[in-house]
Design a protein that fits this description.
By secondary structure, the protein is α/β, with parallel strands linked by helices. The chain has three domains: 6-102, OB fold (Dihydrolipoamide Acetyltransferase, E2P), CATH 2.40.50; 108-267, P-loop containing nucleotide triphosphate hydrolases (Rossmann fold, 3-Layer(aba) Sandwich); 287-344, Probable gtpase engc, domain 3 (Ribonucleotide Reductase Protein R1, domain 1, Orthogonal Bundle). It has nine helices and 15 strands. The strands form three sheets. The chain has a five-stranded mixed beta barrel. A hairpin with a 5-residue loop joins β14 and β15 (264-267).
Length: 370
């Protein structure tokens, strides 16, 4: 069964390939084996409701997902996220479509759910690049960049660091050196959405058909950069607070936006906190210099803290690796290990509750039969 790649409502033609449809998703769609279904991509999510684009145009989504990929790291079936590809029952064009399955994701951007909840928040799915956006004024923080890059690598996308608001920075050269020291070979682009600086470099980085997510704190200029790339005021933008330089939320929901040049942009709500939800192995990409040095440590399981013959601590002592960089590595590693333990404990308690409930049901049945 081949999924259609284009269609029309009236004079409107939609090519799903322009929204990122590829042989990867074609193959997964065909594996469902249901000729009544059609492919659709989630283009907007707002308070749990979703809008999807199908070959017949944009539609509202409804219904409970009965088949899902389960790659979001959460305990239950994943809800849709902006960027997801789905299989839907189309129905009449005036009615919402019913989502029957979420196709397996090529990549995702996950962070820990806010507060004390044990679980992940799926920010975006099926992204090729993540523009990790920070501003060169109030928001500048290399430690936050390390967190966002780790989450990007862990989800299977590639990070590009975007330093925005260059027009407000009088320490550009110094900040650029600091960022390049933590980017470890990932591209670093300097922009000013207000002045139009660096927009050509951003466009050149976004390939035709590529899906690029803009991730960063509130007020760093993600929406302004997208408006600059589009050449029009598509998204609402806001100012930062004068008392602390923090941004206000102008994007309240994730959405996909197509560029005239063929790329697909993902605008996401700003993040006030970046709690980690990743595997420990993801640190190897963000802290690649520590990962490479660890090969020369005396012990294969060296934690780079107090063990003798640690090549990483020797590099710190010799000034080859900044002490703050190793301290950040240890902090993120402790956070990831702590969250993994909380997750395991949560799963253990869930299993105990389900087992206890099962025995109680069995006991009631036995009493009823006697």
């Amino acid at each position: 069964m081949l999924a259609p790649t284009s269609g029309a409502i009236g004079s409107t033609t939609v090519k799903l390939s322009a929204w990122g449809w590829s042989p990867f998703f074609q193959e997964r769609f065909e594996q469902l084996g249901d000729p009544s279904l059609v492919p659709a991509r989630v283009v907007r999510v707002d308070r749990g409701a979703a809008r999807l684009v199908t070959e017949a145009g944009e539609r509202r989504a409804t219904g409970t997902v009965v088949r899902s990929s389960g790659e979001d790291g959460s305990d239950g079936p994943p809800m849709w996220a902006v960027g997801d590809w789905c299989a839907v029952t189309p129905g009449h064009e005036a009615d919402p479509v019913r989502v029957e399955a979420i196709l397996p994701r090529r990549s995702h951007f996950l962070r820990k759910a806010a507060g004390r909840a044990v679980g992940a928040q799926l920010v975006a799915a099926n992204i090729d690049l993540v523009f990790v956006v920070t501003d060169l004024a109030a928001d500048f923080n290399t430690r936050r960049l390390e967190r966002l890059m780790t989450l990007t690598w862990d989800g299977g996308a590639r990070p590009v660091v975007v330093l925005n608001k260059a027009d407000l920075c009088d320490q550009l050269d110094q900040h650029l050196l600091e960022v390049e020291a933590v980017a470890m070979g990932s591209p670093v682009l300097v922009t000013s959405a207000l002045a139009g600086q660096g927009l050509d470099e951003l466009r050149a980085t976004i390939g035709a058909g590529a899906t690029v997510a803009f991730i960063g704190s509130s007020g760093v200029g993600k929406s302004a950069l997208i408006n600059g790339l589009l050449g029009r005021q598509r998204l609402r933008t806001g100012s930062v607070r004068s008392r602390d330089g923090r941004g206000t939320h102008t994007t309240s929901s994730g959405q996909l936006i197509r560029l005239a040049t063929g790329g697909i942009l993902v605008d996401t709500p700003g993040m006030r906190e970046v709690a980690m939800w990743a595997g420990e192995a993801a640190l190897g990409a963000t802290f690649s210099e520590i990962d490479e040095l660890s090969v020369d440590c005396r012990f294969g399981d060296c934690t780079h803290q107090s063990e003798p013959g640690c090549a990483v601590r020797l590099a710190v002592e010799q000034g080859a690796v900044p002490a703050a960089r190793l301290a950040s590595f240890h902090k993120l590693r402790r956070e990831l290990l702590s969250e993994a333990r909380r997750r395991d404990e949560h799963l253990r308690r869930q299993h105990e509750r389900k087992t206890y409930a099962h025995y109680r049901r069995c006991a009631r049945l036995k009493r009823g039969m006697s």
